[in-house]
Specification:
- Helix content is about 50%, strand content about 10%.
- By secondary structure, it is mainly alpha-helical.
- It folds into four domains: about 150 residues, HUPs (Rossmann fold, 3-Layer(aba) Sandwich); about 150 residues, 3-Layer(aba) Sandwich (Rossmann fold); about 50 residues; about 90 residues, Arc Repressor Mutant, subunit A (Orthogonal Bundle).
- The strands form five sheets. A three-stranded parallel sheet has the order 1-2-3, with helices on one face. Strands 4-5-8 form a three-stranded antiparallel sheet.
- Strand 1, helix 1 and strand 2 form a beta-alpha-beta unit.
- The N and C termini lie far apart (about 70 Å).
Length: about 475
């Protein structure tokens, strides 16, 4: 493992991990692994008023569910305040920063004057020469930003991005209440943790020149920056809860598999040829920044469903049973131990999109009493032809136990239809409702085989 390649993911525990943050974490993880480097977890918890322990737990659980294992951390910024103060005073001693005692009114006046003169405000860089600043007067620490030239960000995804120095203020490093600012803590952390690559959302791009100014003032070498385009809603606006900006754990609860979620998020703004399906291990080998797009990517739940269906089909039935029991408490273990049960689960597996489809598709089998859909009773059972149902019931009763298989039971359905001169729905729909309670489900023959002869006949006889 290369000690020189080090990437980090640095979430704030002020909210749950959403798909955008999860994708950023995965990009960092896969790049670290593909380059033979290390993956570091840092918790940026300086917003003590909004931080919540449940948010941090959810973030860590989501990352672990998606398959990420960090090599170092988690580190907490709130435990590093002494280090931030130490570096801030180094900058003061080097003359690269200054204490600013300006009142809000003075700041407003300086900003207005600078704007009128077409320059950026200088604030209070001559604080040492002012006699009206007693030692106990509150102050902030500001960086001395360059007055001319430009800051070049050589971005690993977007290419060269230039910022004129005149657009960058003497921004604050430390507030008057003694707390450090985001741009300052990030720089100190990234250098102390020897981070070689910073891969993050493009909304942080405008922070990068400020961070590079701090790096230069301290004589430090900046990491390689790369800013990932945003995840967008289908209408190309910022992703909202309505379109999928929800906690990653919600997707897990909705029946999505970790492999599907990981594969989909990895392909959301990254590509390697036309390949769609990547295992987690393969992504750890082949991921690179060169495959990242430069424009926003639309979060498409239909495509996510496609991935999930693919991975569900690839799972052994035993794994499906485990997942369904863990998520929903529904135990298909006994069902999976019989030939008919495995046939039913396999049939559901072929068309399942989410794990919950197994519960909705087979819950009728696990219940002693049928729970009828009122609409199906009204539109299907009430107008059903009694003589047709009776004829079918007689054929089932006469069927030998040895012949109670989906194929032979399906043949009895066809024989009844031919004998009574009716169409398939006139028999199939009411029988399906009587057996399962609704109109959804696998083939009738498979339903009958799964229920067994006694339960099938009992349900058909219970029509009232």
């Amino acid at each position: 493992m290369s000690q020189s390649v080090r990437l980090r993911f640095a979430p704030s525990p002020t909210g749950f991990l959403h798909v955008g943050g999860a994708r950023t974490a995965l990009f960092n993880y896969f790049l670290a692994r593909s380059l033979g480097g290390q993956f570091i977890l840092r918790i940026e918890d300086t917003d003590t008023e909004r931080n919540k322990p449940e948010f941090e737990r959810e973030i860590l659980e989501s990352m672990q569910w998606l398959g990420m294992k960090w090599d170092e951390g988690p580190f907490y910024q709130t435990k590093r305040f002494d280090r931030y103060r130490e570096v801030a005073f180094q900058l003061l001693e080097r003359g690269e920063a200054y204490k600013c005692f300006c009142t809000p009114a003075e700041l407003d006046a300086m900003r207005a004057k600078a704007e009128a003169e077409g320059r950026k405000p200088m604030y209070d860089r001559t604080w040492r020469d002012r006699a009206d600043h007693p030692a106990d007067k509150p102050f902030v620490i500001r960086i001395k930003a360059p007055l001319e030239g430009e800051i070049l960000v050589d971005d690993g995804i977007k290419g060269a991005v230039r910022y004129p120095a005149t657009e960058i203020d003497d921004f604050i490093l430390f507030r008057s209440n003694g707390t450090p600012t985001y741009n300052f803590t990030v720089v100190v952390d990234d250098v102390d943790m020897k981070v070689s690559h910073v891969v993050r959302a493009e909304e942080h791009l405008n922070n990068t020149p400020k961070q590079m100014i701090i790096m230069k003032a301290l004589g430090w070498t900046p990491p390689k920056y790369a800013h990932v385009p945003l995840v967008l809603a289908p209408d190309k606006t910022k992703l909202s809860k309505r379109h999928g900006a929800v906690a990653v754990t919600q997707f897990r609860q909705e029946g999505y598999l970790a492999d599907a979620m990981t594969n989909y998020l990895a392909r959301l703004g990254w590509a390697k040829g036309d390949q769609e399906i990547f295992s987690f291990e393969e992504l750890c080998r082949v991921f690179s920044l060169e495959g990242c797009g430069t424009s926003g990517s639309v979060f498409d739940k239909v495509k996510l469903d496609w991935y999930n269906a693919h991975y569900i089909k690839a799972l052994p039935l035993e794994k499906i049973v485990e997942h369904v029991k863990a998520l929903y408490g529904t135990d298909f273990g006994a069902l999976a131990s019989t030939a008919g049960g495995r046939k039913l689960l396999s049939a559901l597996q072929e068309r399942a999109v989410r794990l919950g489809d197994f519960v909705s598709g087979a819950s009728w089998l696990l219940k002693e009493a049928v729970e009828f859909d009122p609409a199906a009773v009204e539109t299907v059972l009430k107008p059903a032809k009694t003589d047709v149902l009776a004829a079918f019931g007689a054929k089932l009763e006469a069927c030998p136990d040895a012949d109670w298989s989906a194929e032979k039971l399906a043949a009895l359905v066809k024989a009844t239809i031919a004998e009574k001169g009716v169409k398939m729905p006139e028999l199939g729909k009411p029988v399906r409702v009587l057996l399962t309670g609704g109109l959804a489900g696998p083939d009738l023959g498979l339903i009958l085989e799964s229920l067994g002869k006694a339960r099938s006949l009992a349900r058909l006889a219970a029509r009232g």
